[in-house]
Each structure stands twice: as C-alpha cells, then as structure tokens.
Amino acid sequence: MGLLVEVYTGLMDRLSPQLGEHGLSTVDFNVLVRLARSSEQRLRMSDLAAQTSLSTSGVTRVVDRLEKEGLVARENCPTDRRALFAVLTRDGADRIGGVLPGHVELIQTWLLDPLADGQLDGLLDGLRVVRDTANPGARAGITS
C-alpha cells in the first residue's frame, strides 16, 4: 500500500502544477474529464459522485464552483424529476482541451516512459481489477 501511495503522491506532485496553470484543482479536473468522456458530455450528479468518490454534497460543491465559472451546467433529467445532470459546457470543453496536451505530455514523461515494453498492459490490467473490486462506483453511469 505504501508503494501505491508513493506512486500516486509522486505523480500528483508532477501533474498538479500544470492543472493549476489552467485554474483547475485535481478534483475540478477529475470532474471535467469524467464529463468530457461521458456520453453526451453529461452524467447524473449521483453517478458523477460515485465516479469521483465524492460525497453527494461534495460533488454538489464542486459542480457549484464549476458552474459559477461557466465550465459546467445543470440540467433536469427528462425521465426522473428528482435527478439532475451535470453537463460540460463549451467553455468547460475548451478548458479541458487546453489542459490535455500538457497533461498527456506529463503522463508520458512520468508514467509511461519509465515502463519497459509490455509493462503498461500488465499494470493497466491489474489496476482495472483492483478498481472494479475496491471502487465499483468508478464506472457508474457508463453504458459501454
């Protein structure tokens, strides 16, 4: 467990400053990326909370902040009056689009380049198994 924490901490120390240059925290980035990669760039608030491991009140606070910045909007669910969607706005998509090239470059440098041929597939396979066991909500709302 210590090794996993050390890897995570080291990577976040390398990635967070670049996110900050674009006015995003790691939590903001996580929310925006999950919306960007979702069908129609929207998720039910409950699914977004499950995917990000935030409480419902925590995801509400993040979406409130992102909504004030014009990066996310809320929309009512047409089939369930109790549900709300968080929806990535054009400005949100533009912000993520501006962040991703540098983010991907840092991931390449600090995560992918150090691995020898064949190590990445094994790492990803193992991480998916652990994720699906320890955090099944990480795929909430994903239909494919």
Automatic annotation (TrEMBL):
<dbReference type="InterPro" id="IPR036390">
    <property type="entry name" value="WH_DNA-bd_sf"/>
</dbReference>
<dbReference type="Pfam" id="PF12802">
    <property type="entry name" value="MarR_2"/>
</dbReference>
<dbReference type="GO" id="GO:0006950">
    <property type="term" value="P:response to stress"/>
</dbReference>
<dbReference type="InterPro" id="IPR039422">
    <property type="entry name" value="MarR/SlyA-like"/>
</dbReference>
<dbReference type="InterPro" id="IPR036388">
    <property type="entry name" value="WH-like_DNA-bd_sf"/>
</dbReference>
<protein>
    <submittedName>
        <fullName>MarR family transcriptional regulator</fullName>
    </submittedName>
</protein>
<dbReference type="GO" id="GO:0003700">
    <property type="term" value="F:DNA-binding transcription factor activity"/>
</dbReference>
<dbReference type="InterPro" id="IPR000835">
    <property type="entry name" value="HTH_MarR-typ"/>
</dbReference>
<feature type="domain" description="HTH marR-type">
    <location>
        <begin position="1"/>
        <end position="132"/>
    </location>
</feature>
